[in-house]
Amino acid sequence: PKLVKASASAEQFAPSNIALCKYWGKRDAELNLPINASLSVSLDYLGTHTRLIPIEGQVDEVWLNGQQLQPGARFSRKVSAFIDLFRRDQTLCFKVETRNNIPTAAGLASSASGFAALTLALNDALALDLPPEALSILARMGSGSACRSLFEGFVEWRMGQREDGLDSHGIPLDASWPGFCIGLVEVDAAEKAVDSRSGMQRTVETAHLYQSWPLQAAADMSKLQQAIQERDFSLLGQTAEQNALSMHATMIASWPPLLYWQPDSVAAMQKVWQLRAQGLELYFTMDAGPNLKLLFQRQDRDVVLQHFPNLETVEPFGSE
Ligand code: 2P0
Fold it and tell me: In the Enzyme Commission scheme, what number(s) does this protein have (predicted)?
């Protein structure tokens, strides 16, 4: 978009999302174009509220959860660089207030919901009136996974073929699954040592095992679509868990090795496997961090909570 001046303040919300088939690896690092398609589920009310207020000045003011950040802080620079995509007149600046209601303890990435909410707020403040797919493309430029947070429910990120990335964006699946539950298991809330951007790059450049990842992801995309269409929870859970472990296998096979797990992560995985051996339909997925996200159905919620007390649970499609 080519813009002249801000028209108004704006406030928007976007949900966080959990990928069932992961985005891992870029074919273009500047445009955030992925090597594989991915599929996620958005987390309903858990996400980011972003408010934009036009201000006089030479620099944006970035606030995160009620605290003003230094203009040189990493997050501030990322936000300003993203607003630059929308800015022709460099004197157009904003106060950006970002609030995450994702329990920090869950250690969930907030960049997906953050850039999605910022994109929606810019669309309003600048009166762009862009269609959802265009907004998804723009959000992707801030953070790849943000292109999925533009939508509710199950979302596919089509990788696209074009070099300019205009066919690489999120598409919501026309599917609902009442009773579908996600549980957030906190292992460690601390910020990770290696961010996703560098982790992906290291994996693509150094892990021979990564060559098999695009094939795994393509096969998993089909299985997940089938599972969602047929509401086959076992197929969904198995596919998501194997997909996450396959992604982690490529990370571990990088050099220097990239292992996001902690002893408690492995203990939680073993607990899930044990419960499953006893007949419980419980699966997990994990991202670039030590925390687990559990997948289960409403009818098993009480049993799951007995084994994982203090579990924050979300039902993206409501209960049955
Ligand atoms: C995902 N992750 O699909 C995967 C699984 C982490 C592991 O998308 O560099 O923060 O900003 O495009 O979007 C996190 O990566 O990376 C992510 P950038 P992003 O959810």
Answer: 4.1.1.33
